Amino acid sequence: MTDALPGTAEEHFGARVAAFDRWADQQLEHLRGNPAADFLFANVSHLGDFSVLWHIIGLTRGLTSDERADQAIALTAVLGVESLLVNQGIKRFFRRVRPTESGDERYAMRRPSSSSFPSGHASSAFVAATVLTSWGGRRTAPLWFGLASVVGLSRAYVRIHHASDVIGGAAVGLVLGRIAVRIVKRLA
Questions:
Q1: C-alpha separations of 139 from 53, 108, 132, 144 in Å
Q2: Which CATH architecture does the domain made up of 9-187 adopt?
Q3: 112: Cβ–Cβ under 8 A, 6 or more apart, which residues?
Q4: Mind listing the pLDDT tens digit for each residue in 103-134?
Q5: Residue 118: cis peptide before it, omega within 30 degrees of 0
Q6: CB-based burial of residue 35 (10 Å sphere; 0-12 exposed, 13-18 middle, 19+ buried)?
């Protein structure tokens, strides 16, 4: 453990997590270069920047009724708080090094300025999925959580995050999402 580089998986999470990250990256490498997978994951990763995808979904839903317009505003507020907590709080605590400085060279990605753990894309995706499911009912859960999973996976696919960053982000997003649902219901 003393030989671990600062900010590496070994330093923060141990050799098993680092081994898992290497294994997951090897599995994703089997998909990389596939035109359909490259198109999907690169574009979803871009749409996840600044939670744009979730704001589009909230806005689109908000156009259908006054109640959903209020929900769109609430979703935007929740995503703002989540971003602040993750990017200015949790990431600053861990300061984990990203797997690559600006992602896999095969995919043109925005260079993130924050550290790697946890994935903010995964966190915001799972916050949004949790909140949207609370409004749409359990029957909508596969849609929202399936989309959240694709957003999270896209970050490991383009090598902006380690797989364990994505899992950590999903866990943070689920916790923050449950808290947000309780607060939003009380305010409604």
A1: 21, 36, 11, 10
A2: Up-down Bundle (1.20)
A3: 98, 160
A4: 778 888 888 888 889 999 999 999 999 999 99
A5: yes
A6: exposed
Q: Name the token pair of 143.
A: 């849609």
* Cα separation values, 4 from 64, 80, 154, Å: 53, 34, 27
- Residue 19 pLDDT > 60: yes
Note the Cα 119 to chain centre separation in Å.
5
Could you tell me the CA-to-CA distances from 160 to 43, 118, 128, 166 in Å, in that order? 14, 11, 21, 10
List the chain domain ranges: 9-187
pLDDT in tens, 27-70: 999 999 999 999 999 999 999 999 999 999 999 999 999 999 99
For residue 35, give both structure tokens. 């035109």
Residue environment code for 56-91, b if the CB has 16+ CB neighbours within 10 A, otherwise e: ebbeebbeeeeebeebbebbbebbeebbebbbeebb
Mean pLDDT in the chain?
91
Q: How far apart are CA 17 and CA 94, in angstroms?
A: 15
pTM above 0.70, yes or no: yes
